[in-house]
Amino acid sequence: MQVILNEDLPNLGRTGDVVKVRAGYARNYLLPRKLAVEADQKNIRAFEHQKRIASRRREAKRTDAMAIKAKIEALEITIMARAGEEGKLFGSVTNIDIERAVREKGVDIERRKIVLPEPIKQLGDFTVPVKLDAEVEANLKIIVAAQAE
Questions:
Q1: Looking at the predicted structure, is the pLDDT value of residue 1 above 80?
Q2: What would the DSSP string read from start to end of 20-33?
Q3: Which whole-number Å values give the CA distances from 138 to 21, 44, 75, in the listed order?
Q4: 75 vs 24, 34, 87, 108, CA distance in Å?
Q5: DSSP symbol at 131
Q6: pLDDT in tens, 131-141
Q7: What's the confidence (pLDDT) of residue 135?
Q8: Which residue from 55, 86, 87, 117 could staple onto 123, CB 3.0 to 4.6 Å apart?
């Protein structure tokens, strides 16, 4: 049976792909969960139309992400934190602190888009990736400096 995928499915295909699957898999899993629709002429035409619209939307979203990337890469964020004599922080700098500092500079980014594998716990210069879109990633320069007491 041929179906058109409504969502990306691992090991099967991406959204919009026409794939051949066993009838039972389609009937018992894909179709009830609305993960796919049957690939008849009407559904193929409707899906082609939706695909064109999604392509335009994706391109507009990518253009917006590229504009935000340029703004982010032009920034240099300085975060003040209390630190010991060896440069080790009392506490840490997290993506929440980075989001707040970036917002103060006039750029809004969601905290979950800041890729910080673990909190920053030392003074110094860091480059933090910000995933803006599936294909667009910006590098944000952060300086963690000691706060004067």
A1: yes
A2: E--HHHIIIIITTT
A3: 39, 37, 11
A4: 54, 43, 24, 13
A5: E
A6: 998 889 999 99
A7: 85
A8: 87
To 10 degrees, the CA torsion angle through 55, 15, 129, 79? 80
Q: Over the chain, what is the mean pLDDT? A: 91
Q: Are 82 and 90 in contact (CB under 8 A)?
A: yes
- Token pair, residue 125, equals 């210069």
**Res. 149: pLDDT tops 80:** no
Strands 36-38 and 2-5, bridge-based pairing = antiparallel
pLDDT at 72 over 90: yes
Specify the pTM. 0.67
Give the β-pairing of 137-146 and 76-81: parallel
With tokens 């035409």, the residue in question is 45
Distances (CA, A) of 89 to 21, 74, 99, 120, 134: 55, 26, 19, 8, 33
Token pair 């997290």 in the structure block, residue: 94
